[in-house]
Amino acid sequence: MAVPDASRTTVSGGFYSRWLGPLLSQDEGMDAEQMSRSALTALGQASLRRRWPGVSTVLNGLASELQRRDLRLEQVLFGCRFANPVGLAAGFDKNGVAAAIWDCFGFGFAEIGTVTWHGQPGNPRPRLFRLAEEQAALNRMGFNNDGAEQLQRTLKRQNLDPTGKRPAVLGINFGKSKVTALEQAADDYASSLELLAPMADYAVINVSSPNTPGLRELQDSAQLRWLVERLRRLPACPPLLVKIAPDLEDEAIDGIARLAFEEGLAGVIAVNTSLDRLGLEARRLQQTGRSLAEEAGGLSGAPLRRRAVEVVRRLRASGGPALPLIGVGGIDSPQAAWERITAGASLVQLYTGWIFQGPDLVPAILDGLLQQIDRHGLRSITEAVGSGLPWMD
Fold it and tell me: Is the Cβ–Cβ distance between 128 and 33 less than 8 Å?
């Protein structure tokens, strides 16, 4: 497993590379979902006990290695102050069990969920597959989560700091329950958002997962406008963003940018996983013996990078510089993060790349961004957003 910068390997990064690297370097072996569940169980216990002397010592040690405090990385977007532009993408901490400690891993923000009003088990297993050689993953999880009411209890148990005063901004990603008909989708989203709004620094409408039947139909401009207007009427609605798919046609992307402007959305997150196999149609999964062309689910990781950049550029061109964008998909290096920011994203999110690269990826990206700010003579990361500036070695 590659380490982003061997000269800056941390203790935690070295441990990750030594013990998990061999497991992540091959498709087979320990089940990908089971690995994530085991890690989240440990992280959830640490989050609950983060003020205990022994646990706090470990977390403080992580933070000292992985955090980068620099005013040039700070931004204020849709009323939230981001200590740095690198966040954890939705999908990893679905039930918010580690919501209080993601800053210790260097993240400037974390997005938990996707949460639905009704708790649901998701799709049958196996449903998460490593593609080690391609640094990618295929998932068809199906919004497995404990439901909005349980998420509220989980967050309350962690005694989070109030919104606006947290070391890392906390977003909550909302989806439609599988049992809810598409015609009742707005009420389903609204029930979850109304309950959890007081705990969210920002909220995300997820209408782009490929693993809930019919969900992507809500990306249609008329359907999405109806949904946004319903949610914005809720009392104390937090800043509202929408997450879109990479598989949209350019005209649909332009339509979402217009809708975001007209409806006053706080921003757009681009992109979710892809139904396109991106040249990997013939790639076979060892666990099933079938090719990716034959398998259901969304593709994430390095193969998505090119299309994700294209979508961000399109949104920037059609939505203008006033529309905040969060770039996600295939960001696994400082160069990839810089490329996404200079294409128009104010913030970036990690998931698949972070799993493969380990905890050193976050500080490597932040160090790389600071390096580029210096080499281009910029005053802050804000000046890089949408600038088109190249990576300078």
Answer: yes
The Cβ of residue 45 has, within 10 Å, a number of other Cβ atoms equal to: 13
* Helix (H) / strand (E) containing 184: none
- Average pLDDT of the chain is 96
Is position 208 within any domain?
Answer: yes
What pLDDT is recorded for position 340? 99
Q: Please indicate whether residue 380 is annotated as part of the active site.
A: no
The structure's pTM equals 0.96
* DSSP letters spanning 49-112: TTTSHHHHHHHHHHHHHH----GGG-EEETTEEESSSEEEPTTSSTT-TTTTSGGGGT-SEEEE
Following DSSP, what letter does each residue of 188-242 receive, concatenated? HHHHHHHHHGGG-SEEEEE---TTSTTGGGGGSHHHHHHHHHHHHTSTTPPPEEE
Block residue for tokens 């990361």: 381
CA distance 350 to 366: 13
| Residue 95 resides in a domain | yes
Identity of residue 265: L
Q: Show the domain range for 246.
A: 6-384
Structural element, H or E, at residue 129:
strand 128-131
State how far the Cα of 349 lies from the Cα of 329, in Å rounded to an integer: 8
Collapse the DSSP code of 113 into the 3-class scheme (helix H, G, I; strand E, B; otherwise coil) and give the result.
strand
Total domains, the chain: 1
- What per-residue confidence (pLDDT) applies to 221? 87
Asked whether residue 277 is assigned to any structural domain, the reply reads yes
CATH code for the domain in which residue 60 is found: 3.20.20.70
- Please tell me the predicted confidence (pLDDT) of residue 227: 97
Q: Catalytic residue among 208, 209, 333, 346, which?
A: 209
Within 10 angstroms of residue 133's Cβ, the number of other Cβ atoms is: 10
- Quote the Cα angle for 356-339-109, to 5°: 60
Residue numbers of the chain with a pLDDT score lower than 70: 1-8
Handedness of CA 258, 319, 368, 333 (dihedral sign): positive
> Angle formed by the axes of helices 305-319 and 334-343, to 10°?
20
According to DSSP, residue 9 is labeled -
Q: Please check whether residue 178 lies inside any domain of the structure.
A: yes
